[in-house]
Each structure stands twice: as structure tokens, then as C-alpha cells.
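Sequence, please.
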């Protein structure tokens, strides 16, 4: 089934087969050594063939970045699991769940999420995984993890957790990847 999806996306030009495969590996990691015995296993993947959100379910926002760069974000109000949200970002918008690299972007996305969603939390593109016996946080887009805004007692210590941005205070939480929430795509 995954091979068929990769082929379809490659032929349609929605995403290169290589990029789609890379992102899928990031969403559902391979089996790793356990950091905490008895904790949950792989994150829930759910139905990844969801239709693209309707225009009424999304809001596009832009932010002036460094230099001439303009950062574009799409707020997706449809509640999905982490894997579904990432898949929709890649397949429908050629993007990725948002990575946050400084307090300015975090503050901006906090206010955007608060304005355009009715939810206390939204998915962003971070996850925490157990790697070689220790916990490591990483962005799905493979950019450097150079900033964080974790709430106290976060990230949670389990094999892996997916990252949300709290629309109340802008802090991040590591929660079960199967939870259904709105999301922020960086496109």
C-alpha cells in the first residue's frame, strides 16, 4: 500500500517519492531500544489516506523571517492524529508540521493558533524518541533542534511522544501521538 502511495505521489508531483519516504520514516520510527520498559510502542498511524482539508478548514498566515525570507504557515483546524496531520502537510501542501527555532516564531504561532482554532493544543513537528538508551527531541523536517519551550515535566519520558503547542501559554507538551488535534503546517 505504501509503495502504491509513493508511486501515485511521485506521478502526480504532489511530493517526490524520496521526500515522502523520508517523512514517513520520521513519523513512524523503526523499532528502537527501550528506554522505559513496558511503555507504549510505535505511535498510532491511523488512516493516512484522509482527503485534503477543505478551504474552510484552513487559514494561511505569513511571517517575515530573517533577511528576505517569508515564513508561510497553514493552520489546519481538522482534528487528526500526529501521523495524519504530517501526512496531510506533505501530501496536500508539500510542507511539514512546523518546526520552531526561536521565541519570536513560538510567540507568533501561539497567537495564530489561539486565533484560528478552538483547541487548547495544536500539533507542531517535534517528537521525542528513545535512541540508544536516551531521549532525544527532533524536528520532522530534520532541521536542528536549537530551541525549545517545554512545559514543566516535559518532554514525557516514554519511547516516543509527539509535540504540541499549548494555545494558552505557548509551552510545548509531549503527548500520545494518537490524540486528535488541529495542526500547523509550515509550507
Amino acid at each position: 500500500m505504501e509503495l502504491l502511495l509513493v508511486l501515485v505521489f511521485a506521478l502526480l508531483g504532489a511530493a517526490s517519492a524520496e521526500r515522502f519516504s523520508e517523512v514517513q520514516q520520521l513519523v513512524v520510527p523503526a523499532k528502537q531500544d527501550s528506554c522505559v520498559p513496558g511503555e507504549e510502542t510505535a505511535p498510532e498511524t491511523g488512516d493516512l489516506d484522509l482527503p485534503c482539508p477543505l478551504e474552510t478548514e484552513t487559514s494561511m498566515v505569513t511571517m517575515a523571517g530573517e533577511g528576505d525570507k517569508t515564513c508561510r504557515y497553514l493552520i489546519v483546524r481538522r482534528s487528526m492524529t500526529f501521523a495524519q496531520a504530517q501526512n496531510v502537510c506533505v501530501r496536500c501542501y508539500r510542507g511539514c508540521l512546523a518546526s520552531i527555532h526561536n521565541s519570536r516564531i513560538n510567540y507568533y504561532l501561539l497567537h495564530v493558533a489561539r486565533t484560528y482554532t478552538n483547541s487548547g493544543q495544536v500539533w507542531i513537528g517535534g517528537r521525542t524518541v528513545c535512541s540508544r538508551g536516551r531521549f532525544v527531541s527532533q524536528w520532522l523536517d530534520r532541521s536542528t533542534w536549537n530551541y525549545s519551550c517545554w512545559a514543566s515535566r516535559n518532554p514525557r519520558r516514554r519511547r516516543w511522544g509527539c509535540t504540541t503547542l499549548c494555545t494558552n501559554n505557548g509551552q510545548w507538551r509531549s503527548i500520545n501521538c494518537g490524540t486528535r488535534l488541529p495542526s500547523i503546517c509550515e509550507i
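The beta strands are 58-64, 70-80, 96-97, 121-131, 134-139, 160-166, 172-175, 181-186.
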